[in-house]
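Sequence, please.
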């Protein structure tokens, strides 16, 4: 079970995309036409062989638009995991009584989107690819756009919740991974990274508040963020979401 992609949601896709590209030193983004059925448009950047996505509403009444309104602005949206045993993962989801809001299997690319009321904190998706190194949502030529001079990969994320104990227990059940105490919160280890669960740190309510990126030079990333107005209280923030810079 690997965290392969983080999705954020924001109103001004062009501005957010320019900030992300400049601060994290990323290559060309892919616009996935498949998100149009949800009333969205998007951009997806490869970071090594992990991915960062921003979705933006194109019409009223979208789930993404409602989340922007609920949380008072741009922010975290989805955590997308890749599994090597999709049948087992789906059976575990059914056994846990989690509702599926969307699911597809096409030409070796599969996803299962889980209801956020059943798995709080973000929309969780369990995906599978054949072959495993493929990533359909990054586009057919994503390898041509990988730039690793600055950022190498996504290594994790942080969920804030009123009851991190209960939320982390639910994620552990769905992901099939054990959880452990981490400071005042909880932690679930996944392949290549971790998911952290903490108490509410701001007034925005429950949600994905931070994601981790392995970078070569944290000081240089912070300088780039400051130049674009994306360094707030010493913290890099992109699309309303904190970025935790971890050593490469």
């Amino acid at each position: 079970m690997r965290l392969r992609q983080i999705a954020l949601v924001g109103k001004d896709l062009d501005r957010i995309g320019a900030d992300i590209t400049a601060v994290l030193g990323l290559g060309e983004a892919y616009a996935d036409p498949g998100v149009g059925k949800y009333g969205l448009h998007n951009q997806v950047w490869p970071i090594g062989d992990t991915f960062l996505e921003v979705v933006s509403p194109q019409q009223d009444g979208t789930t993404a638009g409602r989340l922007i309104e609920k949380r008072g602005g741009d922010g975290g949206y989805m955590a997308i995991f890749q599994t090597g045993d999709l049948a087992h993962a789906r059976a575990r989801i059914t056994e846990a009584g989690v509702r599926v809001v969307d699911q597809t299997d096409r030409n070796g690319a599969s996803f299962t989107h889980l209801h956020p009321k059943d798995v709080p904190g973000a929309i969780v998706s369990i995906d599978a690819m054949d072959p495993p190194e493929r990533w359909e949502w990054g586009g057919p030529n994503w390898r041509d756009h990988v730039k690793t001079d600055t950022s190498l990969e996504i290594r994790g994320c942080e969920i804030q919740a009123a009851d991190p104990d209960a939320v982390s227990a639910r994620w552990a059940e769905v992901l099939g991974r054990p959880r452990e105490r981490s400071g005042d919160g909880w932690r679930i280890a996944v392949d290549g990274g971790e998911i952290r669960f903490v108490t509410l740190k701001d007034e925005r309510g429950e949600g994905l508040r931070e994601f981790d990126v392995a970078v070569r030079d944290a000081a240089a990333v912070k300088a780039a963020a400051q130049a674009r107005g994306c360094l707030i209280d010493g913290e890099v923030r992109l699309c309303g979401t904190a970025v935790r810079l971890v050593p490469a």
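Helices lie at 13-24, 63-71, 86-95, 164-175, 218-227.
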